[in-house]
């Protein structure tokens, strides 16, 4: 377990270049095996989850070259089995199942791992693939799927909005015979990016970004070059870094239109926001933020991945505010750690009541999930004294060069 020493309080101000989106790059890498021709990907963030997705592709036999860009040769895939050693590291590993079934008619993967932020079931992925004609069994922690002939297009209504299941069904249906309609689909920008990527290879997907996605099956995909969107969660995390520290920050290489709801909420806290085509400026100089209620919900609502950093902002803001989490059941695991730092919070069912305090104190804390760990690192930056954060490399799973970027805007962090 790595340990970080964070010395505060600091003012986090300056410029940050935002990386490519983790949650778009992960599925794009994995669904790339639907094509058998060379693919070149730009703006891939080189973080731990991505390296684990690359391990999955290598295990299958994909040839990969990383050189700022990523080149994939997916022609020769020798096996369709992914062992637990690899799948346990990332939830996203489930996204290889649909493409393997669509291209080869067979797949066996171990159950996906990832952050322990809730039950994180995969029933909707399995339901969608079954509707497309796959036969799926789950036994001894393994998911085995087979298809007689090819997958067949179907009308699929999801009982719950799921980013993961929408991507599984959309990607598998790309090579199915006939048309597929997904109803109650997730609308996240990352889903639009996966659809745009697949369309750039010859897929016929329309409606991505709405609750109804239509996929006209094609017989094969060609190769191509694609640039991944920027990371809206990384952008939001850095905006909050400035918001909690009376800072003034410019995030560039980002896409402001993907952060509309978060920006609206940040303005309610008192932040001054300016935006350009590919940058956002948040200025909280000489402003004491005001606690602001949030309720997480699927896009275009408030993103659950921004809940932990925004809760931190509320915990040091004026007044009482309520944060309600509706997507995952166990996403407040960072709260007891923040309380060790002097935060005043009460968890009631799926809400946290935040009683803003003027100053957090340093403490010995532990990072337990990805987005919670971002919030703890930021808390260390504004707390008075030396905070010792255990398991501090958890952040490298989902943020590219997080510590380096934070130091550039004034954080004092030593990693051991
Ligand atoms: C993705 C993101 C994650 C984000 C989440 C919601 C990646 C790698 N992860 O996760 O960062 O927080 O979207 O925006 O992109 N569910 C089921 N059955 C299923 C699938 C999901 O019940 O088969 C439930 C989940 O337990 C959860 C809800 O649906 O309560 C939403 O999950 P989902 O949108 O699928 O999230 P992920 O794809 O896991």
TrEMBL record:
<dbReference type="Pfam" id="PF00275">
    <property type="entry name" value="EPSP_synthase"/>
</dbReference>
<dbReference type="GO" id="GO:0005737">
    <property type="term" value="C:cytoplasm"/>
</dbReference>
<comment type="similarity">
    <text>Belongs to the EPSP synthase family. MurA subfamily.</text>
</comment>
<keyword id="KW-0963">Cytoplasm</keyword>
<comment type="function">
    <text>Cell wall formation. Adds enolpyruvyl to UDP-N-acetylglucosamine.</text>
</comment>
<dbReference type="GO" id="GO:0008360">
    <property type="term" value="P:regulation of cell shape"/>
</dbReference>
<dbReference type="InterPro" id="IPR013792">
    <property type="entry name" value="RNA3'P_cycl/enolpyr_Trfase_a/b"/>
</dbReference>
<comment type="pathway">
    <text>Cell wall biogenesis; peptidoglycan biosynthesis.</text>
</comment>
<dbReference type="InterPro" id="IPR001986">
    <property type="entry name" value="Enolpyruvate_Tfrase_dom"/>
</dbReference>
<dbReference type="GO" id="GO:0071555">
    <property type="term" value="P:cell wall organization"/>
</dbReference>
<keyword id="KW-0131">Cell cycle</keyword>
<dbReference type="InterPro" id="IPR050068">
    <property type="entry name" value="MurA_subfamily"/>
</dbReference>
<feature type="binding site">
    <location>
        <begin position="22"/>
        <end position="23"/>
    </location>
    <ligand>
        <name>phosphoenolpyruvate</name>
    </ligand>
</feature>
<keyword id="KW-0808">Transferase</keyword>
<feature type="modified residue" description="2-(S-cysteinyl)pyruvic acid O-phosphothioketal">
    <location>
        <position position="115"/>
    </location>
</feature>
<feature type="active site" description="Proton donor">
    <location>
        <position position="115"/>
    </location>
</feature>
<keyword id="KW-0132">Cell division</keyword>
<keyword id="KW-0573">Peptidoglycan synthesis</keyword>
<dbReference type="GO" id="GO:0051301">
    <property type="term" value="P:cell division"/>
</dbReference>
<dbReference type="GO" id="GO:0009252">
    <property type="term" value="P:peptidoglycan biosynthetic process"/>
</dbReference>
<feature type="binding site">
    <location>
        <position position="305"/>
    </location>
    <ligand>
        <name>UDP-N-acetyl-alpha-D-glucosamine</name>
    </ligand>
</feature>
<keyword id="KW-0961">Cell wall biogenesis/degradation</keyword>
<dbReference type="GO" id="GO:0019277">
    <property type="term" value="P:UDP-N-acetylgalactosamine biosynthetic process"/>
</dbReference>
<dbReference type="InterPro" id="IPR005750">
    <property type="entry name" value="UDP_GlcNAc_COvinyl_MurA"/>
</dbReference>
<feature type="binding site">
    <location>
        <position position="327"/>
    </location>
    <ligand>
        <name>UDP-N-acetyl-alpha-D-glucosamine</name>
    </ligand>
</feature>
<feature type="domain" description="Enolpyruvate transferase">
    <location>
        <begin position="7"/>
        <end position="406"/>
    </location>
</feature>
<keyword id="KW-0670">Pyruvate</keyword>
<dbReference type="InterPro" id="IPR036968">
    <property type="entry name" value="Enolpyruvate_Tfrase_sf"/>
</dbReference>
<protein>
    <recommendedName>
        <fullName>UDP-N-acetylglucosamine 1-carboxyvinyltransferase</fullName>
        <ecNumber>2.5.1.7</ecNumber>
    </recommendedName>
</protein>
<keyword id="KW-0133">Cell shape</keyword>
<feature type="binding site">
    <location>
        <position position="91"/>
    </location>
    <ligand>
        <name>UDP-N-acetyl-alpha-D-glucosamine</name>
    </ligand>
</feature>
<dbReference type="GO" id="GO:0008760">
    <property type="term" value="F:UDP-N-acetylglucosamine 1-carboxyvinyltransferase activity"/>
</dbReference>
């Amino acid at each position: 377990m790595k340990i970080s020493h964070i010395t505060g309080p600091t003012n986090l101000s300056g410029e940050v270049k935002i990386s490519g989106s983790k949650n778009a790059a992960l599925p794009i890498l994995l669904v790339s095996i639907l094509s058998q021709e060379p693919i070149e990907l730009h703006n891939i963030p080189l973080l731990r989850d991505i390296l684990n997705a690359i391990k999955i592709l290598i295990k299958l036999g994909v040839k990969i070259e990383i050189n700022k860009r990523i080149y994939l040769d997916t022609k020769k895939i020798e096996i369709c089995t992914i062992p637990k050693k690899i799948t346990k590291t990332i939830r996203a590993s489930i996204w290889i199942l649909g493409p393997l079934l669509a291209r080869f008619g067979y797949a066996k993967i171990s159950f996906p791992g990832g952050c322990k932020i809730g039950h994180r079931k995969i029933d909707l992925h399995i339901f969608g693939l079954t509707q497309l004609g796959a036969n799926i069994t789950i036994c001894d922690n393994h998911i085995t799927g087979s298809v007689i002939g090819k997958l067949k297009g179907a009308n699929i209504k999801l009982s719950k909005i799921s980013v993961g299941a929408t991507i599984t069904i959309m990607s598998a249906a790309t090579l199915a015979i006939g048309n597929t309609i997904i109803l109650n689909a997730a609308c996240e920008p990352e889903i639009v990016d996966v659809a745009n990527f697949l369309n750039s290879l010859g897929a016929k997907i329309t409606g991505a970004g709405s609750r109804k996605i239509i996929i006209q099956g094609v017989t094969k995909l060609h190769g191509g070059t694609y640039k991944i969107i920027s990371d809206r969660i990384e952008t939001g995390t850095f905006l909050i870094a400035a918001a909690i520290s009376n800072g003034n920050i410019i995030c560039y290489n980002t896409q402001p239109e993907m952060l509309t709801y978060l920006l609206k909420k940040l303005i309610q806290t008192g932040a001054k926001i300016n935006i350009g085509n590919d940058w956002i400026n948040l200025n909280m100089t000489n402003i004491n933020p005001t606690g602001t209620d949030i309720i997480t919900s699927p896009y275009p609502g408030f993103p659950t991945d921004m809940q932990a950093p925004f809760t931190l902002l509320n915990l040091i803001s004026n007044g009482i505010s309520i944060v309600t989490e509706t997507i995952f059941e166990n996403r407040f695991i960072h709260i007891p750690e923040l309380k060790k730092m002097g935060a005043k919070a009460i968890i009631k069912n799926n809400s946290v009541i935040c009683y803003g305090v003027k100053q957090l104190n340093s403490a010995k804390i532990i990072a337990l999930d990805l987005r919670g760990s971002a919030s703890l690192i930021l808390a260390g930056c504004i707390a008075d004294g030396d905070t010792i954060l255990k398991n501090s490399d958890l952040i490298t799973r989902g943020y590219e060069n997080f510590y380096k970027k934070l130091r550039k805007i004034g954080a004092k962090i030593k990693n051991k």
